[in-house]
């Protein structure tokens, strides 16, 4: 284990050693701590794309950020420039924009290490708080996705007409203001700061970190790094997103060429032998191997025996990126048919391939059509062909799996086959939600024991499904063998 890994494990061990219960607080700064970069830049890009941000405002915001923020007054000026962009908009408009930006841009930048720390605190029953000087439009979508119930943020003033005035409402939680807000929150929620934790990356947060017994400087600025050294606070640098290089662009192109070439070759050989299914299986395995080899991605699989011992089955996987498709090919090798949303039928990269694989395409907006589309999938299961499906129905912006839909579980119940959860730990780190470039690395996969659904009923289905989802959360937070 490398030294940074040791330091991160020290943070996890400190959480594990802490008392259980809500009286222990865990306060996380947001920008640069939970996510890489700054959420405000996603909003600026959005406004530029929609031509509703004046160039002078953009330059003013960037110039103030580049010059640095030395105190609360500097921050207030910087904030004022940003908030004036929103003047005249309704809170509902900003909430809609914030949710979309989190899903498409901000969420995929969540540090895996921060996610694991947040999960560790939640599992201990601690009171977890995102404490940020950003607005609720930036912070609350993240809190909801991460399962965090509490937020501290800069409130915005709402005029009598129900629109934003472009001014903050009260003191922003920045510098001493954040420390004051944390103390106020702790008093209101019976949180013991002498047993609590705080994490931040910025030098302005020294007063905030000093409010708790267990502060930690993560991804620290030069100012915070120096302050942490003086105070003997733990310092940990998280793994950032890899840079895209021309080599990776070329490798990604080779990846998809290898996938299609390998699949076509395997399918052709199978058809020559007189078996379409044998061709599909050979093509899936060969295409998966060639694509992973070209991309520089390898698989580290725990519990692989559950794949072969449990077929036919409904294989579930937590969906974070297009890389998942390549991983499935290399992992399962064949003898499966996918179930996917109908939009993927026309996907440039995978649409043609998925049609060849006899995918059941589901219209998520039409329940009657969805049930009808699943009928062939039930027949395939009964005939011995496994089904692969992402129960969330879409890619998750963070490592936290979204709410599981019922279709996959109805399939297993109707066909009388088990469910086998496939937990992908870091496909989103090597290829984020909307990315087109694959970065080389190791994808970790945990194949969990099959789930017998023979005694499941419609009455207890919601509870059973959430139980499976909790298996994913527990596995992601406590990886087998670590």
TrEMBL record:
InterPro entries, alphabetized: HAD-like_sf, HAD_hydro_SerB1, HAD_sf, Plipid/glycerol_acylTrfase
GO molecular function: hydrolase activity
Keyword field contains Hydrolase: yes
SUPFAM superfamilies (UniProt xref): Glycerol-3-phosphate (1)-acyltransferase, HAD-like
Domain Phospholipid/glycerol acyltransferase: 313-427
Pfam families recorded: Acyltransferase (PF01553), HAD (PF12710)
Keyword annotations: Acyltransferase, Hydrolase, Transferase
Stretches assigned to coiled coil: none
Full protein name: HAD-IB family hydrolase
Organism, scientific name: Actinomycetospora straminea
């Amino acid at each position: 284990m490398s030294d940074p890994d040791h330091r991160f494990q020290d943070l996890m061990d400190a959480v594990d050693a802490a008392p259980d219960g809500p009286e222990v607080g865990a306060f996380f700064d947001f920008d640069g701590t939970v996510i890489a970069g700054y959420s405000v830049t996603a909003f600026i890009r959005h406004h530029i794309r929609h031509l509703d941000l004046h160039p002078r405002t953009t330059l003013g915001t960037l110039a103030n950020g580049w010059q640095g923020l030395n105190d609360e007054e500097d921050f207030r000026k910087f904030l004022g420039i940003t908030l004036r962009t929103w003047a005249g908009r309704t809170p509902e408009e900003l909430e809609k924009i914030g949710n979309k930006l989190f899903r498409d841009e901000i969420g995929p930048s969540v540090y895996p290490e921060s996610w694991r720390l947040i999960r560790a605190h939640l599992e201990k029953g601690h009171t977890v708080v995102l404490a940020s000087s950003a607005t609720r439009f930036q912070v609350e979508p993240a809190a909801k996705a991460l399962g965090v119930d509490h937020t501290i943020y800069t409130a915005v003033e709402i005029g009598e007409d129900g629109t934003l005035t472009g001014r903050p409402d009260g003191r922003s939680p920045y510098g001493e203001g954040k420390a004051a807000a944390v103390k106020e929150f702790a008093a209101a929620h019976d949180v013991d700061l002498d047993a609590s934790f705080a994490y931040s990356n910025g030098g302005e947060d020294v007063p905030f970190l000093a409010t708790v017994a267990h502060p930690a400087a993560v991804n620290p600025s030069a100012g915070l790094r120096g302050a942490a050294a003086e105070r003997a606070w733990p310092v940990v640098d998280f793994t950032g997103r890899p840079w895209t290089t021309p080599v990776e662009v070329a490798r990604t192109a080779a990846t998809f060429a290898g996938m299609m070439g390998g699949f076509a070759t395997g399918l052709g050989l199978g058809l020559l032998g007189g078996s379409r299914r044998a061709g599909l299986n050979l093509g899936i395995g060969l295409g998966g191997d060639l694509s992973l080899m070209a991309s520089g991605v390898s698989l580290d699989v725990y519990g692989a025996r559950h794949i072969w011992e449990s077929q036919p089955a409904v294989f579930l996987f937590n969906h974070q990126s297009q890389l998942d498709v390549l991983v499935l090919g290399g992992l399962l090798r064949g003898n499966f048919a996918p179930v996917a949303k109908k939009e993927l039928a026309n996907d440039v990269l995978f649409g043609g391939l998925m049609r060849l694989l006899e995918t059941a395409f589901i219209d998520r907006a039409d329940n009657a059509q969805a049930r009808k589309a699943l009928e062939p999938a039930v027949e395939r299961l009964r005939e011995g062909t496994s089904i692969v499906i992402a129960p969330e129905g879409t890619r998750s912006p963070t490592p936290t799996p979204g709410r599981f839909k019922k279709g996959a579980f109805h399939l297993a119940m109707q066909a009388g086959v088990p469910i086998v959860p496939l937990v992908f730990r870091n496909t989103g780190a090597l290829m984020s939600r909307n990315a087109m470039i694959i970065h080389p690395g190791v994808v970790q996969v945990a194949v969990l024991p099959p789930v017998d659904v023979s005694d499941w009923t419609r009455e207890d289905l919601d509870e059973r499904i959430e139980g499976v989802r909790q298996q994913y959360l527990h596995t992601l937070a406590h990886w087998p063998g670590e």
